[in-house]
Amino acid sequence: MTDVPSTRGAEVGRRIGVGLMYGLWKPRVLGSWRVPAAGPVILAVNHAHNIDGPMVMGVAPRPTHFLIKKEAFVGPLDPFLTGIGQVKVDRHSTDRTAIARALGVLEQGGVLGIFPEGTRGEGDFASIRAGLAYFAVRGGAPIVPVAVLGSSDRPGRLIKALPPLRSRVDVVFGDPFDAGDGSGRRTRKALDEATARIQKQLTAHLENARRLTGR
């Protein structure tokens, strides 16, 4: 039996995230009421900054368990990230332990956070991996698109891949949607179709979020 990440730990992580994010930046959160108040849900987050995960963890209305690359679990960060309910994943293999833990979060009605592009990049949802569709269809969870829009194009960054300290960072939550076609099919074709639907929805949300925030 695979251990399910701790919801209590994720709530502690949320409180730490709130303190850190509001202490270092100026988050502006739009649409957080769109996150279903109960039941399984997946937050699909674009990934342009290293703070995207902690930012969403801090401002989301519910404790969130993110799938995080195993390379981040180094030294004291390993027990810390595990303790706050985050899920270590090996991106270079079929990580069955991570898959089981992530599905466990959804089975218990929790919130799973995923960067569907896999790695930090332009944050434009240009390339989406099939894992998101698999978790959404298999876990029976709606997807809430989340756009994190920082100030990466402005000077003043002390550390590359971080917005300038005390700059405004917008976090825009979109409407939940179902990735599957309602059949519950998990064939390769069904997941490919779901991935295409997801990409369309996430890209549309990001465009809308940019219009809304002027970013």
From TrEMBL:
One of its GO terms (biological process) is phosphatidic acid biosynthetic process. One of its GO terms (cellular component) is plasma membrane. Residues 41-151 form the Phospholipid/glycerol acyltransferase domain. InterPro entries: Plipid/glycerol_acylTrfase. One of its GO terms (molecular function) is 1-acylglycerol-3-phosphate O-acyltransferase activity. It comes from the Bacteria. This is Lysophospholipid acyltransferase family protein. It comes from Streptomyces sp. R17.
